[in-house]
User: Fold this.
Amino acid sequence: MIQLFHVSKFFKRCTALHNITLQIDKGECVLLTGPSGAGKSTLLKLIFGAEIPDEGQILVQNRNIARLREADIPYLRRTMGFVLQNFKLLPKKTVFENVALPLIIQGVSTTESKKRVREVLKAVGMAHKHTIQTGVLSAGEQQRVCIARAIVNDPIILLADEPTGNLDKALTSEIVELFKTINARGTTVLLATHNQTVVEEMNGRVIHLQAGRMVSDKGPME
Ligand code: ADP
Assistant:
């Protein structure tokens, strides 16, 4: 599903990732942990094709990300959802419109879009607020909408970068439950966090990064 071979990524003043070799199988739940600046976001962006590795190879669903033509990247991204900490929702648009956006971009028919948006909003517990502008929602609600938007395409891989960063403990647990449900349905989940509660509650494989290096890789607790 996702394979990295000796991947390094350098920025001007630092090595964001150093010699990462890693395989993630279909349906796995992986927590990327490590302090701020460890390279977690960079790793997610590389898998999403938003950054290109300086060394090594990355295969996502057997396709070499670095060798993809620019024109092919959107097709690959349609198989992935990406949830960010700071939402990036359109605040003046309604919940429904925000979630429908990826489908509109892909040219999915209105009837089909409506059906899919209704389904995912129900799954994240936001169906009753579909006509509300996202700008007036609480942080927890906004994050639910983001997750709905990330899964509306039925992605094979769901990437999340500190998805509970803005949330209190109770909301964090709710969002964790949502990720667990999505993973239980077969979606591969790769979640970057430095929140220990999230790591414990998700109980997945834990990959720990430090200063761009992979320092441990442990399976879930039995
Ligand atoms: P984390 O997500 O674990 O906090 P990041 O992947 O964001 O870590 O960053 C890893 C390192 O790479 C940090 O030192 C960060 O400053 C650096 N970095 C990340 N993105 C860029 C960029 N676009 N330009 C320059 N340096 C960057």
